[in-house]
TrEMBL record:
Record's protein name: Heterodisulfide reductase subunit A
Family, per entry: Belongs to the HdrA family.
Presence of the UniProt keyword Membrane in the record: no
Encoding gene, per UniProt annotation: hdrA-1
Alphabetized UniProt keyword annotations: 4Fe-4S, FAD, Flavoprotein, Iron, Iron-sulfur, Metal-binding, Oxidoreductase
Cofactor(s) required for function per UniProt: FAD
Domain 4Fe-4S ferredoxin-type positions: 103-131
Length: 423
């Protein structure tokens, strides 16, 4: 397998995006004998799943599903992985596409053993994007303990002094500051867009106070807190003072099902908050948890059973009502104002921590590629199976959980193969 080298001049299929959908599509296609180029804009594979503490249906850690996929990719010579790479444009027709790729420099070559000497020598720090800016990391860093490829990355913002220190610390001649951005062209028969999703920008929801008050966080920020690889090493605390929260309020549909933001249901938010309640209950048995919701959606028998178990918890309260306002109270606490849709009463609750269940926005919504793709009004790819050739997969196509994304990815791999064999 080729990692972080120039992609071959031609292949059967190009997969854009190395999250769980892209990995599944790549493996399904390659294991039927097709040459696959997998490109990922980040410095590592794994996508959003890599950022999770646990994921449904078995509440596994990311290692549970990703490690075996990384091994299968590593062992398959038909798969060519290129990280820090984006698609510039796609020209041509089904069965005969010419794709222009742009690759950013890692400043670390394949000699890297992941020893960490460069990170120890480097003194400068940058914002840690993996943890949504809740902490900082060295300018020479391994993106994640289970990063694949397991190679360090050096930020373009590293100082000249730190450059010298990194070069001197590396015993393997793995540091290469002569690397520059490169552009390459590949020919493929089919393209699968597994570009995934991004959390909706909660600062755009003025009435919910995110960005103005420290103790209002998003669901993905809490997910990183709960992870042992996150900014607090698995401890869920108030950002303002690192105190254990005695009360937590979840605000569902934060930006979703709202014509001013995301008009659709993001599918995963209800189950994510229920899962987060179990994280909190495990760490803080006496903490009180309140979930404000419009409708609670638990699709399928297994999810419904999970929901019913939480309803029996005396420390978990469900309030049917849309939150009107979230504002700061005394001592860093946060006040939530909502109308109880059942009783008609106005509810005011003060909590130590508020978690906004922000929705799922397709990654291509704001920056659409130069390719013959059709999008709906929300930025999701609309597949044209009659035309074939290019397909949106997983959350690039619609909001979905990990299970549904994997199922969809298998189907899109088959569609891509049909384009290849039919040309």
């Amino acid at each position: 397998m080729t990692i972080d080298k120039a992609a071959p001049a031609s292949a059967s299929i190009l997969v854009v995006g190395g999250g769980i959908s892209g990995l599944t599509t790549t493996l399904e296609a390659a294991e039927t004998g097709h040459e696959v180029i997998l490109v990922e804009k980040n410095a590592y594979l794994g996508g959003r799943v890599l950022q999770l503490n646990q994921y449904f249906p078995k509440l596994c850690p990311p290692t549970c599903g990703l490690e075996i996929n990384f091994r299968r990719i590593k062992d398959n010579p038909a798969i060519h992985v290129q990280t820090m790479t984006e698609v510039v444009k796609v020209e041509g027709a089904p069965g005969n596409y010419e794709v222009t790729l742009k690759t950013r420099p890692r400043f670390v070559n394949n000699n890297c053993t992941g020893c960490g000497a460069c990170g120890e020598a480097c003194e400068g720090e940058i914002e840690n994007e993996l943890n949504f800016g809740m902490d900082r990391t060295k300018a020479a860093y391994l993106p994640h303990p289970m990063a694949f490829p397991a190679k360090y990355v050096i930020s373009e913002y590293i100082s000249a002094d730190d450059k010298k220190k990194c070069e001197e610390a590396c015993k393997y001649a793995a540091i290469d500051f002569s690397m520059t951005e490169t552009t390459t062209t590949v020919k493929v028969a089919s393209v699968v867009w597994a570009t995934g999703w991004k959390p909706y920008d909660a600062t755009r929801i003025d009435n919910l106070g995110f960005g103005r008050h420290q103790n209002i966080i998003t669901n993905m920020m809490l997910e990183r807190m709960a992870s042992s690889t996150g900014p607090t090493e698995g401890k869920i605390v108030r950002p303002s003072d690192n105190a254990a929260p005695k009360s937590v309020a979840f605000v569902q549909c934060a930006g979703s099902r709202d014509e001013n933001h995301l008009p659709y249901c993001s599918y995963i938010c209800c189950m994510a908050s229920l899962k987060h309640a179990t994280y909190l209950r495990a760490q803080y048995p006496d903490a009180e948890i309140t979930i404000y919701y419009i409708d609670l959606r638990a699709p399928g028998q297994r999810y419904e059973k999970f929901y019913n178990q939480l309803k029996e918890d005396e420390k978990v309260f469900f309030v049917k009502g849309k939150v009107a306002e979230v504002s700061e109270a005394d001592n860093g606490s946060v006040t939530v104002v909502a109308e109880n849709a059942v009783s008609g009463e106005k509810v005011r609750q003060t909590a130590d921590l508020v978690v906004l269940a922000t929705g799922m926005e397709p990654s291509l919504a704001s920056e659409k590629p130069q390719a013959d793709l059709t999008f709906n009004d929300s930025g999701f790819i609309k597949n044209d199976f009659d035309k074939g050739g290019m397909f949106g997969c997983g959350c690039a196509n619609k909001p979905a959980d990990v299970v549904s994304s994997n199922q969809n990815a298998t189907g899109m791999a088959l569609k891509a193969i049909q384009t290849v064999v039919g040309r």
